[in-house]
Amino acid sequence: MKAIVVKPGTKGFELKDYDLREKLGDHQVMIKTLYNGICGTDRGIVSSKLSFSRPQDGFSELILGHEAIGMVKEVGDNVVSFRKGDYVVPIVRRGCGECLNCKVGRSDFCETGKFVEAGIRGKNGFMREEFVDDEAYLVKVPEAIKDIGVLTEPLSNVVKAIDELFQVQRRMIWNCEDGAYSCRNAFVIGTGPIGIFFSLMLKTFGFNVYLLNRRDPSPKEEYISRKINATFINTSKGLSDLPKVDVIADTSGFPSAFIPLLNKMNKNSALILFGTQSGDKTQIDADLITFFVENNIALFGSVNANKLDFKEAINYLTMWKEKYGDALSSMITTRVKPEEASKILLEKPSGEIKSVIEW
């Protein structure tokens, strides 16, 4: 079996023959990998910039890959939800088995920090020709969206974050007179797949969405923003024309990108921090804290997703494919074979929204 492996703490990766001798258990499924999505986490591991990455217990290397879609090859004797030929996506995080959240399937809110994440920390990932996984950690993908099913994992994270947003904002009446959110504005900072998915989610609920970046849009970004009726703003040209805003979703991880926008926030608005970076420093002073307090502004961070979020992500992809057509497909900007993985793992291709490995 071919697999892409890394040694956490060491730069680089290797495509090699790798025999895990995985046996199919009664409640397990054998899956042929079709596509792996690539994100900043994968590149952070390959470049040895993510210190928390570690191999699975008993291994010196880690099989990379947490975004995947595959086809069922074989099922265990007691598997009830899947059959040969089904398309599936695997869930990334597996719980600690100790805290209450993990015991009830909410490992995205693990309280001990002892969880593992496939292809990231403590569990071999899916960047290989095939893998075996427990039925409980798989979600079925309709054949109609098999071409974009690899986008399920990143979207699931956004589904969770938007759910958190609405739970926080239940502290008051936040919807508009029409019952939806057509009177509310949203800034989405960053125009990668997560930024686009935040925009799609917010547009679905009726928000007026502004996609923000420090440059002009690429042709595909311009096409997607026009297709979903979002306004693309190059913030390097100034912020004066931006309206007041009710929610800011930062996917960049750079404080210098979102702090200058905070004075645009309406009373009772919310700031979602999703992106992660290092090195960028921007001062926060007492006046800003006072502004947050006096205006009832909520701030929360969000990471990971649970099985229900994955299922909801598949529902949204199915609905959006019908509504937006090839705008979703165009998010996949680069496809390479495993032998060409260096083209997308060592650096970000020009114009990338989402790069994938095709097995």
Automatic annotation (TrEMBL):
The chain crosses the membrane at residues 186-211. Residues 147-358 form the Glucose dehydrogenase C-terminal domain. GO terms for biological process: non-phosphorylated glucose catabolic process; protein tetramerization. Residues 25-143 form the Alcohol dehydrogenase-like N-terminal domain. This is Glucose 1-dehydrogenase. Its cofactor is Zn(2+). It catalyses: D-glucose + NADP(+) = D-glucono-1,5-lactone + NADPH + H(+); D-glucose + NAD(+) = D-glucono-1,5-lactone + NADH + H(+). Its EC number is 1.1.1.47. HAMAP family: Glucose_DH (MF_02127). NADP(+) binds at T191, G192, P193, I194, N213, R214, R215, F274, G275, T276, S302, V303, N304, K348. Keywords: Carbohydrate metabolism, Membrane, Metal-binding, NAD, NADP, Nucleotide-binding, Oxidoreductase, Transmembrane, Transmembrane helix, Zinc. InterPro entries: ADH-like_N, ADH_Zn_CS, Glc_1-DH_arc, Glu_dehyd_C, GroES-like_sf, NAD(P)-bd_dom_sf, Zn_alcohol_dh. Catalyzes the NAD(P)(+)-dependent oxidation of D-glucose to D-gluconate via gluconolactone. Can utilize both NAD(+) and NADP(+) as electron acceptor. Is involved in the degradation of glucose through a non-phosphorylative variant of the Entner-Doudoroff pathway. One of its GO terms (molecular function) is NAD+ binding. The gene is gdh. CDD domains: glucose_DH. Substrate binds at T41, E117, E153, N157, N304. Pfam families: ADH_N, Glu_dehyd_C. It comes from the Archaea. Belongs to the zinc-containing alcohol dehydrogenase family. Glucose 1-dehydrogenase subfamily.
